[in-house]
Amino acid sequence: MTKRHAYLILAHSQYSLLQELVKTLDHTQNDINIHIDRKSALPESPRAEHSQIHFVEPRVDVRWGHESQIWAEMSLFKYAVNQSVTYDYYHLISGTHLPLYGQAYIHRYFEEMKGKQVLAKWETNAFQTEQKVRRYNLFMRNFAHANPRIARLNQVLWRMGHMIQRLLGVRRNKQVHFYFASQWVSLTHAAVQYIVSQEREVRKIFRYSLCGDEYFVPTVLENSDTKWDIVYADDLLLHEIGVANARTFTMQDLALLRSSPCLFARKFSEQDMELVHTIVALARSRT
């Protein structure tokens, strides 16, 4: 039986880059589902010869570090898992990802995974977990607002909220064992079905979280009664985290990108379409 894959893309801008990403994903075994941030205008549908492309509704107003990131991911999961097609794998990626290998290569990789849940492991520590998911992170909606004054005000109020909680000994989610990984994951149909079924609990746990999307999927799966076969793979995603966000690759990183064993890399920018076109050609040559 032919294996089917669903790509779930979170995007909000850089639609020229999105078109190039779709070009690399376009394959008879793939369908492509795109969530566009509610604040952004919908682009023209990217062109694809083989894949069905769907814009996902409802759209979520996504804010950096805010729980809305999780609700956008949940919207993608719910939309894709309820299609008439049962996909073998669901790949959650951003609009600034690009694959470093062709789709035939990627499909073979996941056939060898034999139904495992594939996550990219990130490092964290107890302090970060306390800050991000065991405190109430208030004022996150405008924490990274485009207006610097609004952003600074919300950051000051957020810090004050944390200080008050520390003084009062406020600590939430005491019974939850949190697990941490990149939000960009590749999951089986059964795992996505399970995650969707846990939406009510997810909303309870991750409301008022900070960057809770990095805890969301691994925590839900690892705490399940089902013993999911989870692989924290080093070769799923190439990315480098700066102060708060992934570093944007440039042409100076071409040797690194060429030599990487990772299936995908993030992030790219339409400000450097020379690199984007080079990586698209590289991926297409690696079948």
Walk me through what this model shows.
The structure is a single chain. With about 290 residues, the chain is of the alpha/beta class. The chain folds into two domains: about 5-125 and about 180-285, Spore Coat Polysaccharide Biosynthesis Protein SpsA, Chain A; about 135-170, no CATH class. It has ten helices and ten strands. The protein has helices spanning about 15-25, 70-80, 105-115, 125-135, 150-170, 190-195, 200-205, 215-220, 255-260, 275-285, and strands spanning about 5-10, 30-35, 50-55, 90-95, 95-100, 115-120, 185, 230, 235-240, 265. The model has no long low-confidence stretch (mean pLDDT about 95).
Summarize the structure.
With 287 residues, the chain is α/β, with parallel strands linked by helices. The chain has helices at residues 15-25, 68-81, 103-113, 126-133, 148-168, 189-197, 199-206, 213-222, 254-259, 273-285, and strands spanning 5-11, 30-36, 52-55, 89-94, 97-99, 117-119, 185-187, 230-232, 237-238, 264-266.
